[in-house]
Amino acid sequence: MKKYIEIEKQTFLTFAIGSNWFALNIHKVLEVQRNKEITPVPSTAEFVLGIINFRGEILTVVDANAKLASHKKTEKTTPGKIIIIVELDINDRKVNAGISVEKVLKVIEVPIDQLKAVPEFGSIYNPEYLYGVFQINEKFVSVLNIDKIFTALELDFILEHSGNENE
What we know:
Layout: E1 9-17, E2 20-25, E3 29-34, E4 48-54, E5 57-63, H1 64-68, E6 82-90, E7 93-101, E8 103-111, E9 130-136, E10 139-144, H2 152-160
């Protein structure tokens, strides 16, 4: 009989948007690119910055702050020159996309028991997009549920403007 090893830690890539810190499960991150030129696409959603070429594929790049905010009272940020390339898994479809952030912090291992539920009040970011929170010293880090941040319509747009659908 096989014994299953209980996962005691998860590894995250942490990044900043303004004064807020976020984390992505490292298994969702394909690459971090700096100073990549983004080509704008006319008539797109306000959170879409444009497209880039990633390993021969055209990827949609979104402004993380504009996409994650649940209302307009977010602090003023500028799209960063750092793009985190992520793999989305939505309705059994794998799609790559870029997320523009201001600063990548570090890769960190977090014990499972330090991950806490997302508070239901007081967040300027949509709690539906968050998996949980943990703390580094006195700073709270929100863990993104990257597969939940796009609606079906937004995913269709990403697929339409990308050549990267992996089924």
